[in-house]
Structures are given as structure tokens and as C-alpha cells.
Design a protein that fits this description.
The complex is a heterodimer of chains A (497) and B (490). Chain A is mainly alpha-helical and 497 residues long. Chain A has helices spanning 5-21, 28-52, 87-104, 112-131, 135-144, 146-156, 161-190, 195-201, 212-226, 235-242, 245-255, 257-270, 272-298, 303-323, 327-358, 374-387, 394-408, 415-441, 457-475, 478-495; strands at 64-72, 77-83. A two-stranded antiparallel ribbon of chain A has the order 1-2. In chain A, α15 (327-358) runs antiparallel to α19 (457-475). The longest helix of chain A has 32 residues, at 327-358. The model of chain A has no long low-confidence stretch (mean pLDDT 88). With 490 residues, chain B is mainly α. Chain B is 77% helix and 1% strand. Chain B has helices spanning 7-25, 30-54, 71-90, 102-121, 125-143, 149-180, 185-194, 197-202, 204-221, 230-236, 239-265, 269-294, 300-324, 329-361, 372-375, 377-391, 397-411, 415-441, 454-472, 475-485, and strands at 60-62, 67-69. In chain B, α3 (71-90) crosses α20, α10 (230-236) packs antiparallel against α11 and α13 (300-324) runs antiparallel to α18. The radius of gyration of chain B is 21 Å and the shape is globular. Classes of the chains: A mainly alpha (497), B mainly alpha (490). The interface between A and B is medium-sized, with 32 and 33 residues.
Chain lengths: 497, 490
């Protein structure tokens, strides 16, 4: 039998979490080392899978590294894992951020045992979502994520952490309630829980009649809460702002990508016709998200809240790319998910560092830090520029593809106009990023920040890694787009665009 | 007549008497616990043996078609034996509170278990009523066992309302008997089927009888609007008895409803649609009222009481499915059975954790659970797992149960009901998580550890294990539930 790579990647963090649960909190260093080991191995395996991934054209739409076992016979549910071109980079992204999250958390000293156990469980569930090919398994992984997030935000968070945590949980559960209804409808219209079977055979498997649009919308609400789509976004600024740094990184970097992934994997590829029908209102929502998110970002004074709101704007581009329904735009959307993952991950890491080292999170009070903490400022600036989509960074490649794809797409009428409106968002983004950098880091130095610590070795290490990935994807996006294309072309084939 | 099929019941009766006799002569009261446990193991074991040996040849009728022995009844017999086993394990320390009456306590639990087993097996309205009263009377006494003000009040309330509901039930059964001329469930069904549909529609007697029977059973399963006894009784009764009530008594109620409504009133479709609609309505109001009223509760036993009302609502979604679509009813039945099994583990686990904690801190106020994670980490973790399961979140059993039961409902175009149920699950997350929040983030008044002894710990461990197993690999129990549900196939 072949080695079950995906199972190993998914469950090693869980094993690590269980081991950590048995180590006393006093052995702080051992706990962190265990956590590092149990995230490093999945990362190495994920990189290996990414390298070994078959990129030939014949592999389009083919599931690789598949594992399929009967799980619950009476429900016809399978333990079915596998990755295609769409999910492979996201699995890699999550393993990568999961590993960095442990490094970023190195300075956690409050109840470290529980903290790292939850953090590892979080990684398990997110990778599980990306690798599941069975609806029930997908949903279980999707739901499990809520529990660690709840604890991580409410114990190790800051500000109104209790409120933010419960708000996050209720929003998510509300969304998944609809998603569950959608999955149940899907299950009984098709009699199958296999994501691939349903997508490939379309609703030709239909046994009883249930309006596809109803299923589509129920699923969509679940994913829209997570992405988030305006007007379901209000949990995001609270949760991102109040979560501890590493959790913000996981949340913004990997977790909200589950929404975009779900939309492509379930909504678009199972209901291409319905998707086309509803594309126009969704694109309008995307535009509102882009512009509204950017406008609200401009008004923020809290450094983390600012990055949080910028995520809403950036996820609007993803939504635009998905429902422009073209090969290029979907590829762009997928690339934007990856790019936003690393860029915002880095932004949150840097913001966390600023807050930790300087103990100020109000942008108006910061200023002139470039002389006192040059490393932090330079890296922060790089991340900011990547976020506004400067060429040679991953943000540029992704947004360019989205705009190009949606401008050329014929799937939705008037798309050119919408695209032009969306591009205004880029201007706003440039506005708030530059304003933030200027406000916090440049300008005259302030004396009270003399002697503030700059990044230490470990921090420099993860900064360097993230910057390297951002630049690599920016300069040579084909490293990812070649893979994404394989996952997306069969979906586009269904739309006929 | 094949009397050996009746051994589980005989065993329980014998052991109940045995426990009382031993109580007279033995000073070491712990012996009683072990004797009762032994009796339950035999009863459960024999039921398993019958299932395995005779599974396909069943059903067999006993006592002149008064009782049926079939997979359905056996499923419940095993379930009840298991629940009683866990409850007795969990009351090991608690029982010291009524030291003089320990013998009676264990004996009454065995007798009520016997009553419930009979309830699941009943095939005749007469035996149904006897079994129901046997169960109820022992429970009335058990609820008042603490003999303090609250416990006595609870017992009296339970007795009065229980008697009222029994009367209503009897009245309903009398109407059904008058209408059909039979008390045996199969014969009732034949009599109804022999009538013309028009005749059925024209005469209100049968429907009124059915409505009254639903009212009587609604009391047992604590469905709104027959739930008013729940909060006070749950709060006042000794906690192990509350656990027992909330799980076993409810399961027995559902067993009897499934049996009666499906075998007697399943055909014609017009009839089943009628009672299916009633259950759908009851399901909606039970879920909403149970969940909404649970939110402001400060006492954990009361909160779990209201939560159990909401859970009855989810279960009634299954009953509505049975009524709406008799064609796939066997599947809908098995979803209810599976839900009951997973609910048993979950709710018992929650209550056992409450027993252990309140034994030490002497309070059932949620606020006093603050910082429990530090004081009793294992118990707090298990309670967290059970609460997550009650919400219906994976990987706990509650999720699979809801998935299964709501799935059957969706299949029968009861989507609207499922959406209400799922939204209710979200509401319930609020109050369940509040307890979790207090335990995990609250500042404890003292740092004292909360000790727990072997037997309750073992019970809690078994429940948590059950919750996880049913949540992750539920296939085995689902298959058993399916076999049990098949009994009512057409």
C-alpha cells in the first residue's frame, strides 16, 4: 500500500496536540519544541507533495495522492482525501503558516500547553477541509475549527476578547447551519457524499427534485460568512483584532480561504449554471466589499484592526475573480488566496511584533520608528507594498490576473464596468497602506521609542521566509498558477466560458 | 411460549428483590451497588445474546401478544441496561446522602429499568399502561429521595402532573379502544385499515384519542406544552435520578411512541400525516421554548432540563418524518434510535460531571463552576466534550445524530423543519458555551482540587468514550439501529 501522505499531514499536528496535552505547562520549552516538530514534518511532507505533484496537462482535474476508505456504511460516507491543482497549494499554504504560527508564538508564556494544543488542532482541521473529498468529512473538519478558535481568541486574545470569540462562533455556526442544510439537500438529491462524483456527474444523479438554486444559496451562505462577503463580514474585524498574533495569522492567512475554496469547490463546480445566474449580484457584493472595506480601512487607527479591514477588501477581489467565472479570473482568485495568505500573514506577524515590542497599537501614537527598529519597519513596508499589489510581489500577480480575467470574461454581462470599478479599490488600498506606513514608521523619530527592541533571530528567520515566498510568487507566479490551472480548467469547462 | 426470551426482565425483578433482602442483612452498603450492577450486566448480556441468536426469527409475542420481543425492543433493553449501569456507577458517592435507604434506591432504579424494558416491548395498550405506571411510580419515589424541601416538592409535582398525564393517556386509549374494539396494537391497525377513509375522516373519536395519547406521552418525553414539570423536578431530584430521568425516561417515551404510532396508526397515510403534523408542531415549539428559556438559567440542572426539552424537539423532528413518510419510516426510526443512543452517552456524561463537581462544591450554580478547568481538569474536559456534543458539533456524537436525523427529514421534504432545527442548534450554542466559558476562563474562588472517586470517574470515562466513538465511527451503532428499525417495515 502506498504511504498515506495526506492523512499524515493532517493528523500529525493532532498527534502533537495530544502529546502536548500530557506535558505539564511548566515545561514550556519542551512544549514549543514538540509543537515545532509536529508542524515541521507536515510542512516538509506538503512541500514534497507539491514538488511531486504531477503538473502535466493530462493531470487536469485528476485527484492525486488519493486515499479512499469506506467510513460509515449506513450513510455511504467515505474517508476520502485527495488534492488536485486547486487544493494542493492551499494545503501547502496552511502547513507553511501552521509552522510559522508556532514560531510566531514562541513568546507565549500563558498556559502554553493548552495554547499549542489548540493551535495544532486548528492546523489539522484547516488542512482537513482542503484535502477532504467527502462532504461529511469536509463538514466535520469545517466545524472542528470553531472549537480551537473559540479558546484561542478568548484566552490569549486582547481587548474585548470574550465578545469577539463568541461573535466568531455564532457567525460561523450560523453559516454552517445553512451549509449543513445545503449538504443534506445535496446528499439526498444525489444520494452521494462524494464531492468529486457530484461535481463530475453534475445533478444528473438527481433522484428527487430539489431546486439547485436553493442548495447553491444555502452552501453559499456558509462560505460567504467565512470569506467574508459583505454584509456578513462584521465578525472579522473583531476576531482578527482581538486574536493573539499567531492566531490572526492563521485566521487571515489560512482559515478564511476555506470560504473561497468552498465556493469554487462546491458552489461553482457543482452548480455552474446557477453560479452564472447569480454571478451578477455576487459581483456587486464583491465590489461593495472591495470599496467599503478599503474605505473603512482608511479610517482605522488600530494597527491590527486596519489590517483586518483590509482583508475584507482583499477578499472582495477573490469573490470577483470567482464569479467572473473565467479561467484566468478563477486562477487569479486562487492565487490571490495564496498571496493574501502569506502577505497578510506577514502583516499580522509584523503588527504583532510592533505591539509586543513597543506596546502601542494606536497608529497615531506611533511614528518615526524606522530609526529605532529598522528591520521591523523594512519588512513591514515590504508586506505593505505586497498588499497594495506592487509588481514583483505576489499581490501584483494575483490582482493582475483577477482584473485581466474578469475584464475578458464573457460569463457575466457588464463585467468590464465592474472590473473598472474594482480597480478603484487598488487606489484606495495604496492610500491606506502608504498612509499607515508613513504614520507609523516614517517621519520624525519619537524619543520615547528609543531603545525599543528590534526583531531577534527567530523573528528575522520567519520574516525572511515569508518575504522570500512573496517575492518568489511575485516574480515567478507560474510556480503556483501552473498547479492552480490544473484544478480550475475542468471547472471552467463546465461553465463553457 | 418461549419464556427464556423474558429472562432480562425476570433478572431485573429478581435482583431488585435481592438488593432489598441483602440490604436487610448487610452493613457494608457498597455490596448493593455491585449486586445491582451485576443484575444489569446479566439483563443486558442476555438481551445481546437473544439479539445475536434469534435476530432474524423475531418478533416473538409473549403473554398472549401482550409483549413483543423483537430487535426494536432488544435495542432499547440493551440501552436501558447500559444507562442504568452508568447511573448506578455514577451514584456511588452520591448515594451516601441517603445512607439508610440505599437498598431501596438501587432496587427502585432496577424496577424502573424493568418498567422501561417492558415499555419498549409492549404490544398492547393494557401492558403499555402497566409498564408505564411501573416506571413512573418508581421514578416518583426516586425524585423525592433526598427528602429535603425541594426534592419533596419536586416529587409531589411530578406525581400530580404524572397522574394527570396518565389520566389523559388512559382517556385517549379508551377512545381508541372504543373506536376500534381492540387493545392489541396489530389488531387496532387492522381494524383501522378495514374502515373506509371517509369513515375515518368523518369520525373525530380516533383523532381525539390519538391527540390525547400524544399529550400523555408528551409528558414522558418532556415536549412543550407538557414540560412544566421539568425544571423543578430536574433541579429538586437527586442528580443521578435527574440524569436517569432525562435520558432513560425520555428514551422509553420515544420507544413507546414509535411502537404505538407506527404499528397501530401507521396506515392510512391520512392518519399518519395528521399525527406527523402534530409532532412537527410540537418539535418546533419544544426546540424554540427549550432553547430560549435555557439561555437565562443560572442553575446547571435547570439549564440541562430546558436543554433536554430542546433535545426532545430534535427527536420529534424524527417522529414527524416517520409520520410524513411511512415509506422510508424504517430509516427515520433508526435515526431516532441512533439519536437516543448518542443522547444517552452525551447527557449522562454531562450529568455525571455535574454530580462529581457538585458533590465537592455543594452547588449547582453555573457561576460556581468558575475555573473548574484548573480544579478538576479531566471532569471539566469531559463536560466540555459533552456540551459540544449537545450543541451538535463534530467530532462528538451529537453531530452525527443530528446529521442522521435531519438527513432523513430533508429526504422527506421537511426542509423547513430542519432549517428551524439547525438554527435552534446555533442558538443553543450560546448557553452551552457559556458553561464552557465559565469553566475555562472564570476565576476560581479557591484553588482546591475537586476529587473524584473510581466509580463515577469510570462512568464519566465510558460516556466520553461513547460520545467520541459515536461521533467518529458511528457505523456500528447505526447498523444496529437500522436492524432495530426494520421491525416496523411493511
Amino acid at each position: 500500500m502506498e504511504f498515506n501522505y495526506l492523512t499524515t499531514i493532517i493528523f500529525l499536528p493532532l498527534v502533537g496536540a495530544i502529546i502536548i496535552a500530557f506535558i505539564s505547562s511548566e515545561h514550556d520549552r519542551i512544549i514549543k519544541r514538540v509543537a515545532a516538530v509536529f508542524t515541521t514534518i507536515p510542512l516538509i511532507l506538503a512541500i514534497y507533495l507539491f514538488v511531486a505533484f504531477d503538473r502535466s496537462l493530462g493531470a487536469a482535474g485528476v485527484i492525486q495522492f488519493e486515499e479512499n476508505y469506506l467510513w460509515i456504511a449506513p450513510l455511504n460516507a467515505h474517508y476520502h482525501l485527495g488534492v488536485d491543482g486547486l487544493s494542493m497549494p492551499l494545503v501547502l499554504l496552511t502547513a507553511f503558516l501552521g509552522f510559522l504560527a508556532v514560531l510566531i508564538s514562541w513568546k507565549i508564556h500563558v498556559r502554553p500547553r493548552e495554547y499549542f494544543a489548540w493551535l495544532l488542532l486548528l492546523e489539522t482541521s484547516i488542512i482537513g477541509v482542503f484535502a477532504s473529498l467527502d462532504l461529511l468529512l469536509f463538514f466535520i473538519m469545517w466545524e472542528i475549527e470553531v472549537i480551537p478558535m473559540y479558546f484561542l481568541i478568548s484566552i490569549w486574545g486582547s481587548g474585548r476578547k470574550g465578545y469577539s470569540a463568541i461573535k466568531y462562533v455564532l457567525y460561523t455556526l450560523f453559516g454552517s447551519a445553512f451549509m449543513l442544510a445545503g449538504i443534506l439537500m445535496l446528499y439526498f438529491t444525489t444520494g452521494s457524499l462524494s464531492i468529486m462524483d457530484i461535481a463530475n456527474q453534475g445533478l444528473g444523479m438527481v433522484q428527487s427534485v430539489m431546486a439547485p438554486a436553493a442548495i447553491f444559496l444555502a452552501l453559499l451562505i456558509g462560505f460567504a460568512v467565512k470569506l467574508p462577503v459583505f454584509p456578513l463580514h462584521t465578525w472579522l474585524p473583531d476576531a482578527h483584532t482581538d486574536a493573539p498574533t499567531a492566531v490572526s495569522v492563521m485566521l487571515a492567512g489560512a482559515l478564511i480561504k476555506m470560504g473561497g475554496y468552498g465556493m469554487i469547490r462546491l458552489c461553482v463546480s457543482m452548480f455552474p449554471d446557477v453560479a452564472q445566474e447569480y454571478a451578477q449580484p455576487l459581483i456587486i457584493l464583491a465590489l461593495i466589499g472591495i470599496l467599503y472595506g478599503a474605505a473603512v480601512t482608511l479610517m482605522q487607527t488600530d494597527i491590527k484592526r486596519m489590517i483586518a479591514y483590509s482583508s475584507i477588501s482583499h477578499m472582495g477581489y477573490v469573490l470577483l475573480g470567482i464569479f467572473a467565472l473565467g479561467q484566468v479570473s478563477l486562477t487569479g482568485a486562487a492565487l490571490q488566496m495564496f498571496s493574501h495568505g502569506v502577505v497578510t500573514g506577514l502583516l499580522f506577524a509584523m503588527a504583532g511584533l510592533v505591539i509586543h515590542n513597543i506596546e502601542v497599537r494606536d497608529l497615531r501614537k506611533l511614528g518615526g520608528l524606522v530609526r529605532q527598529v529598522p528591520v521591523i519597519v523594512v519588512v513591514f513596508s515590504v508586506a505593505g507594498l505586497a498588499s497594495l499589489g506592487l509588481p514583483t510581489t505576489s499581490g501584483f500577480a494575483a490582482e493582475f490576473l483577477i482584473f485581466l480575467g474578469s475584464f475578458n470574461s464573457t460569463a457575466v454581462p457588464n463585467l468590464q464596468v465592474y472590473t473598472l470599478i474594482a480597480i478603484v479599490g487598488v487606489v484606495l488600498t495604496a492610500g491606506y497602506i502608504l498612509w499607515m506606513l508613513q504614520q507609523a514608521f516614517y517621519g520624525p523619530a519619537k524619543e520615547e521609542y528609543n531603545g525599543v527592541k528590534d526583531a531577534d533571530g527567530l523573528e528575522k528567520f520567519y520574516m525572511f521566509v515569508l518575504v522570500a515566498v512573496i517575492m518568489l510568487v511575485g516574480i515567478y507566479p507560474a510556480v503556483l498558477t501552473d498547479v492552480f490551472k490544473l484544478g480550475i480548467s475542468p471547472i471552467v469547462g463546465l461553465i463553457g466560458g | 411460549m418461549n419464556l427464556w426470551l423474558f429472562i432480562p426482565e425476570i433478572t431485573l425483578a429478581v435482583f431488585a428483590v435481592l438488593v432489598i433482602l441483602i440490604d436487610l442483612g448487610v452493613r457494608q452498603k457498597a455490596v448493593l451497588k455491585w449486586v445491582s450492577l451485576f443484575g444489569l450486566v446479566i439483563a443486558g448480556g442476555v438481551s445481546v445474546t437473544i439479539w445475536r441468536a434469534m435476530g432474524c426469527e423475531l418478533p416473538v409475542y409473549l403473554f398472549n401478544t401482550m409483549l413483543a420481543v423483537d430487535n426494536f425492543a432488544l435495542f432499547f433493553k440493551i440501552l436501558f441496561a447500559g444507562i442504568a449501569f452508568l447511573v448506578i456507577l455514577a451514584s456511588a458517592d452520591y448515594a451516601d446522602k441517603f445512607s439508610r435507604f440505599q437498598g431501596e434506591y438501587y432496587a427502585l432504579i432496577l424496577i424502573s429499568t424493568l418498567g422501561m424494558m417492558l415499555m419498549a416491548a409492549t404490544a398492547d395498550l393494557i401492558s403499555l399502561y402497566i409498564a408505564l405506571e411501573l416506571t413512573s411510580v418508581s421514578l416518583y419515589i426516586l425524585v423525592g429521595f433526598l427528602k429535603d424541601r425541594k426534592s419533596t416538592e419536586a416529587s409531589l409535582k411530578y406525581l400530580l402532573l404524572g397522574a394527570l398525564s396518565s389520566a389523559v393517556l388512559l382517556y385517549g386509549m379508551a377512545l381508541v379502544f372504543g373506536f376500534t374494539g381492540h387493545t392489541q396494537l396489530g389488531e387496532i391497525a387492522q381494524a383501522i385499515q378495514a374502515m373506509s377513509l371517509q369513515g375515518l375522516m368523518d369520525s373525530p373519536a380516533l383523532l381525539i384519542g390519538i391527540v390525547l395519547m400524544i399529550a400523555g406521552f408528551g409528558f414522558k418525553i418532556a415536549a412543550v406544552p407538557f414540560q412544566m414539570w421539568v425544571p423543578d423536578v430536574y433541579e429538586g431530584a437527586p442528580t443521578p435520578v435527574t440524569a436517569y430521568l432525562s435520558v432513560a425516561s425520555k428514551a422509553a417515551g420515544f420507544a413507546i411512541i414509535l411502537r404505538v404510532f407506527f404499528s397501530a396508526f401507521g396506515i392510512p397515510e391520512w392518519l399518519s400525516l395528521n399525527w406527523g403534523t402534530i409532532f412537527a408542531v410540537l418539535a418546533v415549539i419544544s426546540m424554540i421554548i427549550g432553547n430560549v428559556v435555557a439561555i437565562p438559567q443560572t442553575n446547571i440542572k435547570r439549564m440541562l432540563g430546558y436543554s433536554s426539552i430542546a433535545q426532545a424537539g430534535y427527536l420529534m423532528v424524527g417522529l414527524a418524518t416517520v409520520g410524513f413518510a411511512p415509506a422510508i419510516a424504517t430509516q427515520a426510526q433508526s435515526t431516532i434510535l441512533f439519536f437516543l443512543a448518542s443522547y444517552a452517552f452525551t447527557n449522562l456524561g454531562a450529568f455525571i460531571a455535574v454530580i462529581i463537581i457538585s458533590n465537592k462544591i455543594g452547588s449547582d450554580e453555573i457561576a460556581d463552576y468558575a475555573g473548574m478547568l484548573k480544579r478538576a481538569p479531566v471532569v471539566a474536559l469531559a463536560l466540555t466534550l459533552c456540551l459540544i456534543s449537545l450543541i451538535g458539533m463534530p467530532p462528538a456524537a451529537g453531530f452525527m445524530a443530528k446529521f442522521y436525523i435531519f438527513g432523513a427529514a430533508v429526504q422527506n421534504d421537511l426542509l423547513w423543519l430542519v432549517i428551524i432545527a439547525v438554527i435552534n442548534s446555533v442558538i443553543s450554542a450560546y448557553y452551552y458555551l457559556r458553561v464552557v466559558k465559565v469553566m475555562w476562563f472564570g476565576e476560581a474562588a479557591t484553588e482546591d482540587k475537586v476529587p473524584s472517586t473510581g466509580a463515577p470517574r469510570l462512568a464519566l470515562f465510558l460516556c466520553s468514550l461513547g460520545v467520541l466513538l459515536l461521533g467518529i465511527i458511528p457505523g456500528f451503532i447505526m447498523r444496529l439501529a437500522e436492524e432495530a428499525g426494520k421491525v416496523f417495515g411493511f
